[in-house]
Structures are given as structure tokens and as C-alpha cells.
Amino acid sequence: MRPVTPAEAAADHLAEADRLEQTAERYPQDAEHLLSRAAAHLELAGERARAGALYDRLLADGAAPLEDPALVRALKAANLWEYGHEAEARAVIDGVRAAAPRTPEPWVVAAEALEAHDELSAALETFTEALGALGVAADPDREPPRAVGPVLFGRHRVRRMLGAAHDGWDALADRLHEGSVPLDELHDPKRVWSLGSDDPAELAAEISRLRAELGGYRQLLSRPFPVAVLHWPAGELAELLADHPALAAEYPSHPEHLAAVEGALRELAASGTANLGVVTGTVPAYEAFAAAEGANPADAALLPQFTTVLASRGRARAWPPAVTEPCWCGSERTYGECHGVR
User: Fold this and answer.
1) For residue 68, which of 27, 20, 31 has the smallest C-alpha distance?
2) Higher-confidence residue: 138 or 303?
3) Which of 96, 249, 297, 298 has the fewest CB atoms within 10 Å distance of its CB?
């Protein structure tokens, strides 16, 4: 098979960015996710100014409220730095840090932007501030939320680069890490030297480690969005069945629906399916989707398509949550006290 040339790859990214922008016009309620993905494709195509324009469009006065404005700002900063606007990028990152967002993604993007430009001390400060803002205690005996894994891993990596000794947060990172290569080895600055070694044994060992890492990356990249199951909150399900009673066969009652969601996810997990998630439906979104597809919302065959589209737009929550995290069903109990009970 003929390899893809850089020009062809850029053209593919530009085409995907155009497609995502057009989709955002059709589904303005998902513009934040769709345009952020479009901007990422533009960055990969080398169109960084155009990507910046999309970030500015999302952040503009009068634009629709964003679910995670700090993340959009962090992405904008990382992009700015890559095409020579270092001072502006630093200012935006400082603003993200001052806002102390309560989600891990903005922190990771901001810290990794600093790390990528050899600002290791500032990157470490940012990762550490993130753990404080997210309420993660440096206690290796406590189970941290999975969502903070990238923060812990990034902080571990930077501390290894700086030669710092392990602390409680590094122990948490080790606990969360599931790869076959330990974090200490994965983040060892000396690994790069082995690639230039004349010793065949050292080269073979490094190739084995790299293959193990790439295997994990391929598994993640092979499925760009989760395999998701559709969840209806009680009020939304009641409205759905009132508007479309033919769907009652799919949803005999709300408790049975919740049990079916958890059961389906556990069956998928038991079969070896990875990257699972839950998407939460609303009646207006479902009916708008049906109208866009020219379909009857009372047709149960439309439900899996709706689920897949929501997952592809980044609307899925990873399953299972940690036992100490809120349950996916929306109850006020933790997952361990609710649907996580076995």
C-alpha cells in the first residue's frame, strides 16, 4: 500500500475540519465540542491561525455559553505558543491557572504546553495546583477519580525530568497506571540515551518497551469515541413516553431502565469491550436528531443511532466511575453506594 504523504495527510485534516464546522452549523448546541475538534485538525494540518480563529469564535462575547471555557482557553494558549505568540500564550495560561478550573483537562493542556517548551518548573507548579483545585489528597491509600489520572501522570513525568524524589501524589500515579511499562521507567529521562546505544541488548529492550506502549496507544486510537449506552433521567423518560408511547416497550419503568443500562455495560465489559460510556438523553435533543435524520422519533431503531451520535460528539461519561464518584444515574449517592453495588 502506498504511504500517505504529508500533503495528503494535511488535506485529510482540512477536509475533516470542514466537515466538523458544517456539522456545528447543523447542531449549534454541540458547537463547543465540534469546533474544538475542528481546530485540532486544523492544527495538525498546520493551519494554526485558522484554528485560533475557531477558538476565538467559541470565546467571543455573545457566543453561546461554554461547558468548559477554561479548556477552550488552554487549547487556544497551546496553539498560540506553537506559532510564535509566546507572550499571549503565557498570559492566557496564567488566566487559566488563576481561574482554578474544577475539571482536569484545562490543567493538563496548560501544563503540557509549558512542558513542551521546556518550562518544567512552571509545568510542575501547574500540575500541582491542579491537584489542589481538584481536591486530590496526596494519600496513596485513597482511591482518586480516574479523571485526574492525566494530571497525576503528567506531574510524575515532569518530576522525573527534574530529578525529584517520589511523593504521595507520585504513589497515586503509580497506583492508577495500568500499562505494562512502570511509570518510573516510562518517564526515565535516560531512556532516550538507550536509543543511541551500540549495545544490541539495550536496543532490543527499548524496542520491546516501545512496542508495549504503542500497543496501548493503538487500542485507544482505534476507537475515537466510547461504546456508549443511552440513559434517560426520570423526567426525560416520562416526557419521552408521553410524547411517543410506542417506546414504552423499550422502557417499562425508570428503575428497570437504570438496571438495564448498568447490566448492558457490565455485559460489554465482561465480553472484553473497552472504552465504555454513558450518554444522557433529553427529549428535545432526541426529537431534533430525528427531525435532522427525517425519521420518526417513535421508531425504537433510532435510539442506537442517537446514542452513537451523542458519543461521537463527546457527550459520553466514562464507565465505570470510581466507587467514590457520583453515580452515572444522577442520584445523590456515590457509584459504590448506588449502581456499583455488586
Assistant:
1) 31
2) 303
3) 249
